[in-house]
Specification:
mainly alpha, Endonuclease III, domain 1, disordered N terminus
């Protein structure tokens, strides 16, 4: 009997629906960490190479590798003509250089072949988004996340780019189901909101995943959307609420705390982080590369 009860409990938890509307989550997370500015990014071809370099490494390492690659070769056309060993040496400080060097070489070569000898990908902005995404995904090693980054950040199209943080937060909030994989999540999330919300959603959810809703030991007591999260840790929220309880001599602060939430209550503490980093890790690189 106990095993059946446990299984039923797990099934019940999995079937819980999200208690936070996407629009409310965007608003509350933006209030907590934003505002998020859609800052200038690299042109599509440079963004594509930077995205390859950013895979499975830190922002700092990918910036270092990209900066050294461009310092070594000057242009992407020169990178495309270089030997794989030369590219590997130039990006060695970024991690996984043996994997990424041939990938960069192959991707640039394929673009030149498909695009009449040009690395200019701005024509993608004139295509329907699904066709533009399909064009990018034919390139070796370019999946839905990388395609979404290029379309959204470089070309200003409302394409969803789902990284591990966004996937985790969306799943914990119940916005995507437990059986939805990372590739399918792009399609599900993109369809779940109007185009103008795609970038704010990306910025808010990736920042929340990095700072609070972490893979290990999520800080539910600091979460501004915990009131509607089916995965929340009730004990952590209770402890946070107790530690944040205003003094008896301060009834005003007790009365007004969290009264702007969608349902009028939020067990988690509210932390406004003006210094929170936005998901635009290579702004300085953009300034260096572009005139």
């Amino acid at each position: 009997m106990p095993p059946k009860t446990a299984a039923k409990t797990r099934q019940s938890r999995r079937s819980k629906k999200p208690g936070v509307a996407i629009s409310d989550a965007i608003r509350l997370l933006t209030e907590a960490y934003g505002p998020f500015e859609n800052e200038p990014r690299l042109d599509p071809a440079h963004e594509l190479v930077f995205t390859i370099l950013s895979q499975h490494t830190s922002d700092r390492n990918s910036e270092r590798a990209f900066r050294n690659l461009m310092h070594t070769f000057g242009t992407l056309e020169a990178v495309a003509e270089a030997e794989v060993a030369e590219i590997e040496e130039a990006i060695s400080g970024g991690g996984l250089a043996r994997v990424k060097a041939p990938r960069i070489k192959d991707v640039l070569g394929m673009i030149l072949e498909l695009n009449q000898g040009s690395l200019d990908l701005h024509f993608l902005a004139e295509m329907p988004m699904d066709e533009a995404r399909k064009w990018l995904r034919q390139l070796p090693g370019i999946g839905p996340k990388s395609a979404g980054i290029i379309l959204s950040f470089s070309l200003g199209m409302p394409a969803m780019a789902v990284d591990t943080h966004i996937f985790r937060v969306s799943q914990r909030l119940g916005i995507i189901g437990p059986k939805v994989n990372a590739d399918k999540a792009h399609e599900v999330l993109e369809a779940a909101m109007p185009p103008e919300d795609v970038y704010p959603f990306h910025a808010a959810f990736i920042t929340h995943g990095r700072q609070v809703c972490k893979a290990q030991r999520p800080r539910c007591g600091d979460c501004v959307v915990s009131y509607g999260c089916p995965s929340r840790d009730e004990e952590a929220i209770r402890q946070a609420a107790v530690s944040a309880e205003p003094a008896e001599t301060d009834p005003v602060s007790r009365e007004t705390a969290d009264n702007d939430r969608p349902d009028g209550q939020a067990p988690g503490r509210r932390r406004r982080r003006k210094d929170a980093p936005t998901p635009v890790p290579h702004t300085q690189v953009v300034k260096e590369i572009q005139p």
